[in-house]
Amino acid sequence: MTDAISGFLIVDKPVGVTSFSIVALVRRLTGVRRVGHAGTLDPLASGVLPVAVGQATRLIEYLDDELKTYIARVRFGVATDTYDAEGAVTTTADGSFVTDALVERELQVFVGDIEQTPPLYSALKVAGKPLYRYAREGEAVDVASRVVHVERVALLSFDDGVAEIEVVCGKGTYIRSIAHDLGARIGCGAHLAALRRTSTGGFALDDAHSAETLSAFAADGRVGELMLAPDRALERRRAAILAASHHDDMRAGRAIELTLRAGVDAAETGEVCRAYSTEGGLIGVLQLRESGLWHPAKVLARGGIEQNA
Fold first, then answer.
1. Cα separation of 248 and 152, whole Å?
2. Per-residue pLDDT tens digits for 105-139
3. CB atoms inside a 10 Å sphere around CB 6
């Protein structure tokens, strides 16, 4: 394969490996240099990791606003400095009083636009330095809270001091922080014992393949059969089919006036739209400006995706 090959490989990342190592694996199996992933998963976590290959890496940003779904196991009675099972224990307490009804009630506090403080052991940067480096060096640092969106939280099961919950949330949400803060609210402490991402960016476990499957297909020269089209990153966006003249305008970087089909809601300024040729090929991405015209944001050229200012 070459960088002219573009698409998404959806990997079911196993526990114990980094997201970067999965990117390195895909780079080696495909022979494509330009590879990137959407939404880092910690080594402790498993599940859906979209890996963009070739020019599809330029479309990763359009996955950011999609909701993500996680299945998390929260253990009560033990809090850690990393908020998960890999950290050092900071407090222990009797959690025998915790019930499923109590957990279910307290979980509702975490629904909606909530204020959340990222874990000190995280890759979030302060003054250009990841927080985990401050923590490892024993250096104090102020971590500002921020607003994140949680669409839904549901208790799936509760047994022997461990709650299994499903969280549907927006970008930037730390499930570890939800586990830690839930334990603090209940009063016995808690940490994230296990985490599995079941969907992100419009991709789900049904789209995902294990590293072993990727390797087996690659050995037969068939890894491309597992690749999803680049426009999967945009499938929830509006779509426009451009006439030849508009096609030429877009390639030249000129703004385009589009007419919405009857009954279609008006677009909002800043909204993006995928653009296709009359033959059905993806041309690129348009964005609506205040002028009411659609400006080329990214243009798919023969050699890949070219970005316009």
1. 44
2. 999 999 999 999 877 766 666 656 666 666 565 66
3. 22
| Backbone torsions φ then ψ of 301, nearest 5 degrees | -105, 175
Task: Give CA–CA dist 157/94, Å, rounded.
Answer: 20
In this structure, are residues 30 and 218 in contact, taking their beta carbons and an 8 Å threshold?
A: yes
Task: Point out the residues that are catalytic.
Answer: 42
> Residue 75 is encoded by which pair of tokens?
């253990």
Q: Give the integer Cα–Cα distance in Å for 36 and 51.
A: 6
Alpha helices in the chain (DSSP H): 19-30, 100-107, 131-136, 175-186, 211-219, 244-251
Task: Convert the pLDDT of each residue in 251-288 to its tens digit.
Answer: 889 999 988 887 778 888 999 999 998 888 888 899 99
Token pair, residue 85, equals 């099972």
Per DSSP, the three-state class of 221 is coil
Name all contacts of 1-5 with Cβ < 8 Å and 24+ positions apart.
1/30, 1/31, 1/32, 1/53, 1/223, 1/224, 2/31, 2/32, 2/54, 3/32, 3/33, 3/34, 3/54, 3/55, 3/304, 4/54, 4/303, 4/304, 5/30, 5/32, 5/53, 5/54, 5/224, 5/227
**Distance between CA atoms of residues 148 and 182, nearest Å:** 16
Q: Decide if 97 contacts 74 (C-beta within 8 A).
A: no
Tell me the pTM.
0.88
Separation of alpha carbons 150 and 171, rounded Å? 9
Query: What residues have CB less than 8 Å from 128, skipping those under 6 apart?
Result: none
Q: Where are the alpha helices (DSSP H) in 187-277?
A: 211-219, 244-251
Pair type for strands 129-130 and 146-159: unpaired
Residue 1: per-residue pLDDT: 44
